[in-house]
Design brief:
The chain is mainly alpha-helical. The protein is built from six helices and no strands.
C-alpha cells in the first residue's frame, strides 16, 4: 500500500473510532437521563398511591364529615402543604387539586435531581479511583519505558538508525503498563466530559 493509502485508511479508522466513542458517550448520557426520568415517575406514582385513599375519602359523596376530617388530618400529616385545602365540612376545595398537582411536579423534580446527583457522585468516585490507580502505576510505566529506551539504544549502538525499525524494536518489551495508563487517562477524560454534558443539559433544562 502507498503512503497515501495508509494515511487514508488510518484517517478513516480514526474517524470511525471517534464516532464510536461519541455514540457511547451519548448513550451513557441518555441512560442517565432515562434513569432520572424513571426515578421521577416512580416517585410520583408512590406519592399518589400514598394519598389516593385519603383523597378519595375527602371527595366521596358517601363519606361522613368525621371520615373526611380524619382523612384530611392524615393527609396534612403526610404533606403539610395540604393545610387549608378543605372547607368547613372537610370537602375538597379547588386548592386541594392545585396542591395535589403542584406536589406531584415537585416530587418528580426532586426525585430526578437526586437520581442525577447519585449518578454524578458515582462518576466522580470513578474519576478519583482512576487518578489513584494512574499515580500508583507511574513507576511501572517508567520502568517499562526505560526498558524500551534501553533496547532501542542497544540497536542504535550497533548502527541501526532506522527510526521506524527502532520503534518496532521497542515494541518487543510490550506496552502493557503504558496501555493501562492510557486507558485510565481516557476513562478520566470521558467521565469528566460526561459530567460536563450532564451539567450543560441541566442548565438548558432550567433555562427553558
Amino acid at each position: 500500500a502507498t503512503i497515501e493509502t495508509r494515511l487514508l485508511n488510518g484517517g478513516q479508522e480514526a474517524a470511525a473510532l471517534a464516532e464510536k466513542e461519541r455514540y457511547e458517550q451519548l448513550h451513557r448520557l441518555q441512560t442517565i437521563d432515562n434513569e432520572s426520568k424513571q426515578a421521577g415517575k416512580n416517585a410520583v406514582e408512590s406519592y399518589k398511591a400514598g394519598i389516593e385513599n385519603l383523597i378519595h375519602v375527602i371527595n366521596s359523596e358517601i363519606s361522613t364529615k368525621k371520615m373526611r376530617e380524619e382523612a384530611y388530618k392524615s393527609l396534612i400529616k403526610l404533606h403539610p402543604q395540604f393545610l387549608n385545602t378543605v372547607d368547613k365540612e372537610f370537602r375538597a376545595t379547588k386548592d386541594l387539586i392545585k396542591v395535589y398537582n403542584d406536589l406531584a411536579i415537585q416530587v418528580d423534580i426532586t426525585a430526578r435531581a437526586k437520581a442525577k446527583a447519585a449518578a454524578k457522585e458515582s462518576i466522580y468516585n470513578q474519576i478519583a479511583n482512576d487518578r489513584v490507580e494512574y499515580i500508583k502505576g507511574q513507576s511501572a510505566r517508567e520502568k517499562e519505558q526505560k526498558q524500551r529506551n534501553d533496547l532501542r539504544k542497544e540497536y542504535r549502538d550497533i548502527g541501526d538508525t532506522d527510526e521506524s525499525h527502532l520503534k518496532y524494536v521497542g515494541s518487543f518489551i510490550g506496552y502493557e503498563e503504558h496501555n493501562k495508563g492510557a486507558a485510565l487517562i481516557k476513562s478520566i477524560n470521558d467521565n469528566s466530559k460526561l459530567i460536563q454534558q450532564i451539567n450543560d443539559a441541566d442548565k438548558k433544562r432550567i433555562a427553558f
